[in-house]
Amino acid sequence: MSGQLNLVVLGKQGAGKGTQSQLLCERYGLAHISTGDILRAAVQAGTTLGNEVKSVLDAGQLVSDNLVNKLVEDRFKEPDAVKGAVLDGFPRNTGQAQALGRLLGEGGIRLCIYIDLANELVIQRLSSRRVCQECGMTYKDTDPAAISGTCEVCGGDVVQRSDDTPDVIAKRLETFERDTFPLLSFYESRDLLVKVNGDQPVETVSAAIDELLHSRGLV
Ligand code: AMP
Questions:
Q1: Ligand 1 atom 12 nearest Cα
Q2: Model confidence, pTM
Q3: One of 17, 40, 75, 130 is an active-site residue; which one?
Q4: Is the C-beta atom of 151 inside 6 A of ligand 1?
């Protein structure tokens, strides 16, 4: 596993994890492993898994560790993960980080990138976020694609995520502080943590991440 480039992208909802993970995957030929996307796709398709987790997602809570650990383990077996993966939205708590450590082994995670964003900005960004149900492209509520409801990339429906509502956003921020925040010390103590200011344009954040990868000799 040590020849692979496996990266963890951490951050509150709306900090830009999805966008930056996507860019990293395109640039370095890595698999994008987003547990949130996998779970939402299952809900939308009405699979057994989807029906099982729908109410948990709608309440802004975390689904069980066993379930997501298994999803990630299976996802790593797909061919696009051969060079490595960007983990987006996983791990979400210390138990999941330990499970990931066991799955990939010593040195399996090369870097954890924390995209930092203040709560007020998270609330602002998420309330105005609209997402394509097909390809996951995100828009602001004032963008033409959001107003017309049609994605400019794939023609899919552009909607508001059911968990991007004020009460669920508050709940998700609470869940982040309680369960996910401790992961910063988890990765820092292993000298794997770097932080990036998320309150900057997408290209600036992306360039900062790239520089960190170069400075650590990872790319
Ligand atoms: P996200 O798109 O990453 O914000 O995830 C959306 C929702 O999916 C979360 O609010 C959780 O309910 C669920 N979820 C995603 N990833 C995980 C995870 N690693 N552990 C538990 N639940 C998760």
A1: 57
A2: 0.92
A3: 17
A4: no
Nearest partner of 71 among 83, 58, 92, 82, judged by Cα: 92
Active site residue 102: no
Domain ranges within the chain, ordered by starting residue: 7-117+173-215
Contact 131, 138 (CB under 8 A): yes
196 in ligand 1 pocket by Cβ < 6 Å?
Answer: no
Sequence-distant (≥ 6) Cβ neighbours of residue 1 within 8 angstroms: 104, 105, 107, 108
Q: In this structure, which residue's CA is closest to atom 15 in ligand 1?
A: 36
- As its CATH architecture, domain 7-117+173-215 has 3-Layer(aba) Sandwich (3.40)
For the chain, the maximum distance between any two Cα atoms, rounded to a whole number of angstroms, is 49
Ligand 1 close to Cβ of residue 92 (< 6 A) = yes
Cis ω for the linkage preceding 182 (within 30 of 0) = no
> For each of the chain's 219 residues, which pLDDT tens digit applies?
458 999 999 999 999 999 999 999 999 999 999 999 999 999 999 999 999 999 999 988 899 999 999 999 999 999 999 999 999 999 999 999 999 999 999 899 999 999 999 999 999 999 999 999 888 889 999 999 999 999 999 999 999 998 999 999 999 999 999 999 999 999 999 999 999 999 999 999 999 999 999 999 999
Which atom of ligand 1 is least distant from the CA of 59?
12
